[in-house]
Specification:
By secondary structure, this protein is mainly alpha-helical. It has seven helices and no strands. The protein is globular and about 55 Å long. The termini are far apart.
Length: 188
């Protein structure tokens, strides 16, 4: 695996993710009730379990949640990349829908304040994990066509996951728990 192949796979993950964000935002712009339903689901399933915790516990829970999502993105490559693509698009749709609803209610500055502090670490980790998953799927396809060893190809991919994705997720979780709330209070 070369750095170019990781860059191309991560770019493909980014394109899929960006298109999904756009579709999610478009759906809410057309029909805000879609956003309200998504926001209710997000609040019930995710936010209610996290927001009552102290910042250190919150950071740990955010880290574990994001680590689980990124691990699924990477290991989803074992499905020839299908699970990886599904996770990328589902998360993109969700983020696009929530962001558009919040933009309508709170404005663009609020969205920027809510996403940028931790997003500069979390989104690249998510996209790199997606790229690694796509590379794993490609390695399996190559092996099925008699041209490689997917297990051997998975080892350097897993090392990159541990060296790049996990530390980025740790930083993102700390920033999201400790810094993002302060930024939001400053602009509110």
């Amino acid at each position: 695996m070369s750095e170019n192949s990781l860059a191309r796979a991560t770019l493909l993950a980014a394109v899929l993710f960006a298109i999904s964000i756009g579709l999610g935002a478009f759906a809410v712009a057309r029909d805000p009730t879609v956003g309200m339903e998504v926001m209710t689901l997000f609040r019930d399933q995710v936010a209610s379990q996290l927001l009552s915790d102290s910042p250190p516990v919150l950071a740990f829970k955010i880290f574990l949640n994001n680590l689980g999502a990124c691990t699924l993105l990477f290991l989803g490559g074992a499905s020839l990349g299908i699970v990886t693509v599904l996770i990328l698009t589902a998360n993109g749709l969700l983020i696009g829908a929530v962001a558009e609803l919040m933009r309508q209610q709170q404005g663009s500055l609020f969205i920027a304040a809510a996403l940028i502090p931790h997003g500069i670490f979390e989104i690249p980790s998510f996209l790199i994990a997606g790229g690694l998953g796509l590379l794993l799927g490609r390695a399996l396809m190559i092996e099925w066509h008699g041209g490689g060893d997917a297990a051997a190809a998975a080892v350097p991919l897993a090392r990159l996951f541990l060296r790049i994705v996990v530390p980025l997720l740790a930083v993102a979780a700390v920033v999201e728990a400790f810094i993002t709330p302060v930024v939001l209070v400053m602009i509110a």
